[in-house]
Specification:
The protein is mainly alpha-helical and about 80 residues long. The protein contains four helices and no strands. The radius of gyration is 13 Å and the shape is globular.
Length: about 80
């Protein structure tokens, strides 16, 4: 189940590059400035975290996922 979740997170990260328009409104909440650049950065981060979970580096993946979710929540709260 962890590997499937990792794969889905990685695919979501890749989707940031293929169809960035779908992530613009959500990204703008946490990153109102340089939103397009943050879409790419978030895509890269999600791809790396998802890949880490999918290939079995679960401790690193969970640490990255927890940190990333916390960071997004902080920025979203700060900018709303």
């Amino acid at each position: 189940m962890i590997r499937i979740t990792g794969l889905l997170i990685a695919l979501t990260g890749i989707a940031h590059f293929i169809a960035p328009q779908y992530f613009k409104d959500l990204t703008k909440v946490a990153f109102p400035e340089d939103t397009d650049e943050w879409i790419k950065r978030n895509g890269a981060i999600e791809t790396a975290i998802g890949t880490s979970l999918a290939v079995g580096r679960t401790r690193l993946g969970f640490l990255g996922l927890g940190s990333y979710v916390g960071w997004l929540a902080f920025n979203g709260a700060k900018n709303s």
